[in-house]
Specification:
Helix 2 packs parallel to helix 3. The two termini are about 40 Å apart. The longest helix is centred in the middle third of the chain and has 20 residues. The strands form two sheets. Strands 1-2-3-4-7-8-9-11 form an eight-stranded parallel β-barrel, surrounded by eight helices. It is of the alpha/beta class. The protein has one domain: TIM Barrel. It is about 45% helix and about 15% strand. Strand 8, helix 7 and strand 9 form a beta-alpha-beta unit. It is globular, with a radius of gyration of 20 Å. Keywords: Flavoprotein, FMN, Monooxygenase, Oxidoreductase.
């Protein structure tokens, strides 16, 4: 890490909403969360109350079946976030789109309308790939190689940004043609754009075109390595305001032992059929060697575990210390949270874990908000 970099003392906090049934744990014994707007609204309003900075939802078009019917029901991201925009007053609301599914002119219009509701609180997470089955079932998958997907996404973003800022757009590229295209209204501010590309190609694309990157690690050392790499690549092109957000699956308990008992219970009902389907779908990607996200899903399936191997498990004090170590080591700007129960566990994150982070020298808005309300 750059020796001149000051030690990080604050971090943003976000929640990755459970818009797919069962949440993020592939098991029949984990909390069977409903993929309903009402539940996700309750989670988002709780996150806002606790002082979380943002709420993000994924985009998913096909589930993995099995006894748990994992993600067989999912809410569409942008329509969900447009409703949450009206329901919230402070928290940032970030939606996700697959660039192969939506034309950029459609997203330009949709996001500008959502921005009118949110008044500058809207953000857009883009996905350049995923897997051939998810979008292929609709005939929308483009069989591009790894570099080709990012070239497609780069042209997609070029068109999107021009429509956000120009009165009329003429564009003739490899993938899109626009003739005297008008898109009004415009967003009140340029929304932040996030991407989760994890390869060097993905990082460089994200740094060139986006505001921030979502990062995943296989363990704490891998998280730190990936986070440092992203910031190094950003520094090489002088983009020192580039942000990185770690995505963490967290299982809290009153003690480390109780937290581990929860994981063991979830694993006792691991849905290997759903995991096998997930592995098969991602294994069909011809660019698998460069698709870091796909390889993480496959690794979970091969391990037959209900949670990602990188899950942070323990008491709030243990979780806070582990998170602080990774955040500081990787110079992360934000923590994005996945939990088994998005009410009780999220409240634990927003109170006890936030306190533990503060003890490790990391402040969050959640701590400040609670101080105001005390």
């Amino acid at each position: 890490m750059n020796a001149e970099l000051k030690e990080r003392c604050s971090v943003e906090l976000g929640v990755f909403l459970p818009v797919g049934n069962g949440g993020w744990i592939t098991s029949t014994t984990s909390p069977q969360l409903p993929a309903t707007y009402d539940y996700n609204k309750a989670v988002t309003l709780l996150a806002e109350e606790l002082g979380f900075d943002f709420a993000l939802s994924m985009a998913k078009w096909r589930g993995y079946g099995g006894p748990s019917q994992h993600w067989d029901i999912t809410l569409e991201s942008l329509s969900t976030m447009s409703a949450l925009a009206e329901a919230t007053s402070r928290i940032q609301v970030w939606g996700t789109v697959h660039t192969m599914v939506f034309h950029p002119a459609v997203v330009a219009k949709m996001s500008a309308v959502i921005d009118q509701i949110l008044k500058g609180r809207f953000g857009l997470n883009i996905v350049a790939g995923s897997n051939p089955y998810d979008q292929g079932q609709m005939g929308l998958w483009r069989d591009l190689d790894h570099a080709g997907r990012y070239a497609f996404a780069e042209e997609w973003l070029t068109v999107l940004k021009r429509l956000w800022t120009e009165d009329r757009v003429n564009h003739k590229g490899e993938h899109f043609t626009l003739e005297d295209c008008m898109s009004n209204p415009k967003p009140s501010v340029m929304p932040p754009i996030i991407c989760a590309g994890g390869s060097d190609t993905g990082f460089r694309f994200t740094i060139r075109n986006c505001t921030a990157s979502f990062l995943l690690g296989s363990d704490k050392d891998d998280f730190i390595k990936i986070g440092r790499r992203a910031k190094e690549l950003a520094a090489e092109v002088g983009k020192h305001d580039f942000k990185t957000y770690g995505l963490f699956t967290i299982v809290p308990g009153e003690t480390d032992a109780i937290a581990q008992e929860r994981v063991d219970y979830f694993n006792s009902g691991v849905d290997t059929e759903a995991l096998d389907n997930q592995t098969r779908e991602y294994s069909g990607d011809k660019s698998l060697a460069q698709n870091t996200m796909a390889k993480r899903f496959i690794a979970q399936g091969n391990a037959a575990q209900s949670l990602t191997p990188a899950a942070i498990v323990g008491s709030p004090q243990t979780i806070g210390a582990k998170l602080a170590h990774i955040v500081k080591g990787a110079d992360l700007d934000g923590i994005t949270v996945i939990v088994p129960d998005f009410i009780d566990d999220l409240r634990t994150i927003g109170t006890s874990v936030v306190d533990a982070l503060a003890e490790s020298g990391l402040r969050t808005n959640a701590l400040d908000v609670r101080g105001v309300h005390a």
